[in-house]
Amino acid sequence: MTDEQIKAFDDLQTDLIGPEEEATLDPPTRDENGVLRGGTWFERTGVVGINGTRCYPMASTTQHSRAMWSPHWFGKIIDFMDEQLAFRKRFIKVLLSCLTIIVT
Fold it and tell me: For 52-81, what is each residue's pLDDT tens digit?
């Protein structure tokens, strides 16, 4: 990987976690005003983990039983996802730029 790609990954990680003083090891919880607190910045955008876990789809998923693929159901809900969607697009762009170097 190039220095530029390493920096892009470091920047993604920093942005995904968000400000250190707001991040916690536990998932975010809602305060008395309904605002998500704790967890990571990405989790505070309202992203929903797969089967209640902290595993979040970033692109397409595979459905083995029918050999179909499609965007994960959460990725189809975009009325409130402007920041989250922009982050996902950036994540995929950085990942793809690194994969092209590995493949070629």
Answer: 889 887 776 555 555 555 555 555 555 555
Domain residue limits, the chain = 3-103
- Say if pTM beats, i.e. exceeds, 0.70: no
Instruction: Give the DSSP letter string of the chain.
Output: --HHHHHHHHHHHHHHH--TTT--SSPPEE-TTS-EESS-HHHHTT---GGGSS----SEEEEGGGTEEEE-GGGG--TT-HHHHHHHHHHHHHHHHHHHHHH-
